[in-house]
Each structure stands twice: as C-alpha cells, then as structure tokens.
UniProtKB/TrEMBL annotation:
The active site is at residues 16, 96. The record marks 171 as: Transition state stabilizer. InterPro entries: His_Pase_superF_clade-1 (IPR013078), His_PPase_superfam (IPR029033), PGM_Phosphatase (IPR050275). PANTHER family: BROAD-SPECIFICITY PHOSPHATASE YOR283W-RELATED (PTHR48100). Substrate binds at residues 15-22, 66. SUPFAM superfamilies: Phosphoglycerate mutase-like (SSF53254). It comes from Hyella patelloides LEGE 07179. This is Fructose-2,6-bisphosphatase. CDD domains: HP_PGM_like (cd07067).
Length: 378
C-alpha cells in the first residue's frame, strides 16, 4: 500500500441506515419518500460511536431525508466525544442515482415487468438507459450522470480539504461512484462494490490534489455486530476471504472466522502462508485444507475455484461455500487485478478483502476491505 510522505486527505464514507424502502424491498433512487426505520436510527448512532477517534474537519450529507436522519444520529454520537464538530454541509451532488419510473417500485415488480432493463442494470449497468420523467420520449443514462457528479464533487472536496479528514454520509450508489472514481474503477464495475446500510469506507489521497487515491477500508460493518458484510445477492456461490501472509494480528483475524461458516482454507506454499493458514485451520476443524504451488496459484484460483464453483458446491452440503485464502501480497494483488481489470490494493498486513461470487453468470462483488484489528481508526 502507498505510504504518503505528506499528510494525506482522508474521506470517510457512510451509507445511510436501513430505511422503510429497504424494508419493503423497493427502489429508492433519488426519491425522498423513504425514511429511517428504528433499526436504521440505532445503527446510525452506533456508526457515530465507531468513528469517535476521528477528528473531522468537514461533514457532507445528501439532502434526502434518510441520509439527513442518518447524519443527525452520527453527529449526535460524535458530539459526546467532540465539542467542536463542524457544521454539516448539504450537497445536492450527493443525492442517490436517479432511477426514473423504477423509484418506489418493488424489486420483484421491476425484475418481472422491466426484465430487459433489469438484466442490463445487473450485468452492464453503465449501458442502462431509462425514460426521462420530464419527457418519456427522451432517455438518460443513470450512471453517466451519477459518475459525472461524483467526479465533480470529489475534485471539489480534495481541493478544498487537502490534508484534512472529511466525513461523507450518502447513498449506496453515490458512495460506489465516489469510491470508484477515487481508485480508477469504471462505471462498468458499479455492481462490483458493495455498500451495506451504515457500512464505513475510507479513501486516502496524497496531499497534492491528485484524484487518484487508495482504498483503505470498504464496507466495514463489525460495529453493527456483522463481522462479515451481509450477502447482498443471497447465500449462494463462493465467498473468499483474501488474507496476506504478513498479517501479524492473527488473534483478531480469528474473530472473523466462524467454524461453521468456513469450508476451505487455501494457501500457497510460502512458509508464512502455511504457518498462518495452519493456525487458522486449528480453529476451523471442519474446513478442508489445500496448499497450492506458487506458480500454479492463479491458474488454480481462476479455473478450479471460480469456473468450477458449481462442481465444488455439489461436494459440500451448503449453498454458500466460504474459503480463506492466505498468500503473498503479490499473488493477492494479481487475483484482484484479474477480477476487476485494474490494480487494486485489497490486502495488507492490517486488512483483508471479502469477495463474493453469487453464481457462474454473476460478476464478482467486493463485499468488504476489512480491518484485521476490528477498528476503523487510523
């Protein structure tokens, strides 16, 4: 990971808490009819407590009610630790992606009655065109507009707050666009980044005004009692935990490993990888243990673990197979590059990544880049 020689600009991003439309399974988009549930309000307050060690220089929020309510709960929690919290800046560019006629409709209804558009949204979201609400004969591209406003906003914030720490409270789609823009991921990969309700993410940028940053955390939810983010696409397919063999705090790592949920422990043949994998395996008595030669690792990953996941699933009595992969950082970086067609730092000695493959026909989802020590502090 990069080590900036000058103070970096840190941007903490939080998605709003669980809302009424989340509960009802409806598309929210840029509509403002959805509000926080009681559960969502409590989670937002817990999120504020989790961020207590940050000294924020600025706080930005979407104008939509569900985010406003989330921001209020977060700042309420922060004020119990900080007397000089900055005023919240409302920015319309943080509104959620516009979804036209889909807004307010149940997911199931859209899937059935807009089947072609729905398939496009899931597989090639950057190509989705929807009818304009003002003129049904005109079309607009939701992600094109979203990513344009994300780039403008991110540029403004980095320019205005160089070397400072900024909190942004917004929406799942908005945060994905901001994160993607910050790490050079195209809108084609929009569905590949998960943002859970009240999940915490962190981007760091060098103090030179550059828009090319580094993803430090993604979608951290352990402050809500969810050590691994919930599976957005259901408990099917493969889920991989990618861990660097340089991890030192294996005690903390083991807190993420529930014996009944880990099916495989895989490592390369590096000594450090073997040692850490064997330590984890002691806790995971039911898991299969596999070692792979270094030069065969990527080939094994791509062909045996990804393309043949259905065959693997038939051998293990579970709809979801979860595996722990321990390897050298260079190998983990190669895996990430193969998955997302860009260089991403997804593992280090203080974090690990969680990747979910819901099915053979579904793109991989980066569910989280999580802190080994269970804390999102510096």
């Amino acid at each position: 990971m990069n080590n900036y020689s000058t103070p970096s600009t840190k941007i903490i991003l939080v998605r709003h808490g669980r809302s009424t439309y989340n509960e009802q399974g409806r598309y929210q988009g840029s509509s403002d009819k959805s509000v926080l549930t009681e559960k969502g309000s409590k989670a937002a307050f817990q999120t504020g407590l989790a961020l207590k060690n940050y000294q924020f220089d600025a706080i930005y929020s979407s104008p939509l009610k569900r985010v406003q309510q989330t921001t209020q709960e977060i700042t309420k929690a922060l004020k119990t630790f900080h007397n000089n919290l900055p005023a919240v800046t409302i920015d319309r560019r943080l509104k959620e992606v516009k979804m036209g006629a889909w807004e307010g409709l149940p997911y199931a209804y859209v899937k059935e009655h807009f089947s072609q558009e729905y398939a496009c949204w899931k597989q090639t979201p950057h190509l989705l065109a929807l009818a304009s609400e003002d003129d049904p004969e005109q079309q607009f591209y939701p992600l094109k507009d979203l990513y344009q406003q994300a780039k403008l906003l991110l540029t403004d914030i980095i320019t205005k707050h160089r070397g400072q720490t900024v909190l942004i409270v917004a929406h799942g789609g908005t945060n994905r666009a901001l994160i993607s823009t910050g790490i050079g991921l195209s809108s084609e990969k929009y569905q590949s980044l998960q943002q859970s309700n009240c999940g915490i993410s962190c981007l760091e940028f060098p103090d030179d005004g550059s828009l090319q940053g580094e993803l430090k955390w993604l979608n951290v939810t352990n402050h809500l009692g969810e050590y691994l983010p919930k599976l957005k696409e259901g408990k099917t397919g493969l889920r991989w935990l990618l861990v660097s063999n340089k991890v030192q705090e294996d005690y903390h790592l083991q807190q993420y490993l529930e014996p009944e949920s880990i099916n495989l422990v895989v490592s390369d043949r590096n000594h450090d990888s073997q040692k850490l994998a064997n330590t984890c395996k002691q806790q995971l008595s039911q898991a299969l243990r596999l070692s792979i030669n270094h030069h065969n690792f990527l080939d094994f990953w791509h062909h045996n673990m990804v393309k043949k996941q259905q065959e693997l699933a038939s051998k293990i009595s579970s709809n979801l197979i979860t595996g722990l992969i321990v390897a050298e950082e260079s190998l983990l970086e190669s895996i990430a590059e193969k998955l997302f067609q860009t260089k991403l730092n997804l593992s280090s000695n203080n974090s690990f990544s969680v990747i979910h493959y819901p099915s053979m026909n579904h793109h991989p989802i980066l569910q989280g880049l999580l802190p080994i020590a269970l804390s999102v502090d510096y």
